[in-house]
Amino acid sequence: MKMNLRLLFCLTALLTTSQATAQEAIEWKLSESGRLFDTADAYRSREHRPDEVSLVMLANDIRFKKDRVTQHIRELWYYPTTRDVENHGDHSIYFNEKMEKLTLLSAASIDKHGVVTSLTPSSAQVLDTDNYRSFSDSKEVVLTIPGLSDGSLTVLEYQIDRDLSKQEADWSEIFYSQRNYPITTFELSVQWPAKHKLHWSSSSHNVECEGSSNRMRCSGSNIPAFEGDSNIYWRDHIDQIAIGELQNWQQVIDTSNAAMHQALKDTSGAKTLLDRILPGTETTDEKISRIHEFVARDIRYVSMSELGHAITPHSIASVIKNRYGDCKDKSMLLAELLRHIGIHPYLTLIASDRTSPNVLSIPTMRYFDHVVVCFDRLGIQYCLDATDQDTNWQYTPSWIQNKVALPLKPAQMPTIINNSRYRWQMDISTRIKFNSEGGQTEQQERHYHGEYASSMRGLLLNKTAKGQAEWLTAQYQNEVSTYAEPSFDIPDLNAMTADLAVYSDAVLRPFLNTNTELTYEENDAWLKNELEIMKLSNKQFSEYFPGLKVRSEFLYDTNKIWKITNTPAILNFEHDFGTMHRQVFLKPDGKLLLTTELAIPEQTVRPDQIESFNAFLNLLKRESLIQFEGKLSKKVQKTEV
């Protein structure tokens, strides 16, 4: 749904660290014995085994000892075919090298004949795959297990030791008791000192959990694979168990605020910066716009989630001096500059991979990976993303709309960040004049609004001038006509304005016979395209529709070659899903004017409604066809174009 335009804005560059630094946090104690190998031998001897990749065992034992917590993980995998080996034979372990130590205890294959082949440490790869929205500095250890063939098992056992004294936020863990593969045996055990109170919650339908004052255990067997859907955020739906230290969301708010406000210890340079960037602005709106654009575009994004700065920003003074920072650094600078002009901003945490507050079963910072700056002005809430270089400040960036958010204000609970009623809005005006050769001249204006303007701007600015022209031409020829080589003008492409206009001029090669009566038809191309790409595709889960609003206007001038006799039908289509209206005017000068207005507001469509919703879109798409007829008014003399 709009995937060709809804670009995720690059909130960070990947932090480059040496392999040697990460390797120092990894210890190898590889062994070919132990309980997991015994389990593997017993499984291998079974007469009947599944015909799909299976997680035979997933066991996690967690223990607290003073200021450390240790996770002992055991995994046993089964691969029925060589294709399964090809697709699933690599395994990844994620850990934070700055506060965690990874110990590899077993990493080996056992083939169907019982031959054991162990991984050699030199074949492991350590990657910096830190998600660019993440408040973390994690590493990925990729283990390519040797010796795998059809009917093989992978034995994987490791331990992660975390130094709690080095973490800035609360400790918590989220365990998914479902995977994309069936799980034969699931075990989870957590023990902690009585004085170190933990709270847990389970939403798993396949696992039974029980707990006491200092312990909780969960177990399950024969758990089916999680069956997702085309357009869902799987963390909203998959079975999970969460455990953490905090009792309420106010503790998350207080912890986050205390960390974020460390940036205010040195704000030197803020006033001087404002004096430099605000000249020429008069209204508060102009000042907000100028400040937002400066922080978004002139303060370079660099991932800065190193030790001690996972959720704690660097000082505002250092961000101004260095002219770079990550989302929390840039957000604190944006908030400070807004305060200087009388705005009262507050930070808001964003969980970019979750859309349902109800599944946040325990209070913890772990759910959140991004932060934006919000404020209320004249009864309207605005949320500005300091890392977004393309969205006008009056609109919430499309990629965080409908995501879980936690405002860092007293007595707040997780909610959904504000959504636009119509996230994708555009107006099109097309003026067509027929010529004596049977061709057309066409002038077109496309006006994209708000989030749509931002998406188009980001897409085009990532291309060279030549690349922009090529992309726009290909888009035009795919959607409108292959009979022309249009020229384009985008006057305000670089500005962070609320709207973006794309102007085009085209001469269409002859395709009509000007010596016969006119039978003309074409699709309202841009409206049709929007309806095509907005179709829903889920089968099992509800799907969110972000809202679409299009106003299209066509003015046809037959240049007195034909007199229009039969005009398109007037439409007044009303439905629970949305509306489409078309007005038709045959003007005194013989020109034909059509205006079409389509409005489908944002909504969540249930699985049992999706087929009907798509049928509704198809109906509107069919009605996008424009047809009219004309009587030849005079003999056309052929002239050279």
Describe this protein's structure.
The chain is of the alpha+beta class and 641 residues long. The chain is 20% helix and 35% strand. It is built from twelve helices and 35 strands. The strands form eight sheets. Strands 1, 2, 3, 5, 6, 9, 11, 13 and 14 form a nine-stranded mixed beta sheet that branches. It has an eight-stranded mixed beta sheet with strand order 25-26-24-23-29-33-32-31. A hairpin with a 3-residue loop joins strand 13 (208-211) and strand 14. Helix 11 (525-533) packs antiparallel against helix 12 (607-622). Mean pLDDT is 91; it is low at 1-19 and 637-641.
Quick check: average pLDDT?
A: 91
Quick one: how many beta strands?
Answer: 35
Number of helices: 12
Q: What structural class is derived from the secondary structure elements?
A: alpha+beta
Helix and strand arrangement:
Elements (H helix, E strand, L loop, with lengths): L18 H5 L2 E3 L6 H10 L9 E12 L2 E12 L2 H7 L1 E6 L4 E11 L5 E3 L6 E3 L11 E6 L7 E12 L8 E5 L6 E9 L7 E4 L5 E4 L3 E9 L16 E5 L4 H12 L9 H8 L6 H15 L1 E2 L14 H7 L1 E2 L1 H14 L5 E6 L18 E8 L2 E5 L19 E4 L7 E2 L7 E11 L5 E10 H12 L3 H15 L7 E3 L9 E10 L9 E6 L1 H9 L9 E3 L2 E10 L4 E5 L4 E4 L4 E8 L5 E9 L2 E3 L1 H16 L2 E8 L9
Parallel strand pairs: 1-5, 2-11, 16-17, 23-29
Antiparallel strand pairs: 2-3, 3-9, 4-8, 5-6, 5-9, 7-8, 10-15, 11-14, 12-15, 13-14, 18-19, 18-21, 19-20, 21-22, 23-24, 24-26, 25-26, 27-35, 28-34, 29-33, 30-35, 31-32, 32-33
Helix pairs in contact: 6-8, 11-12
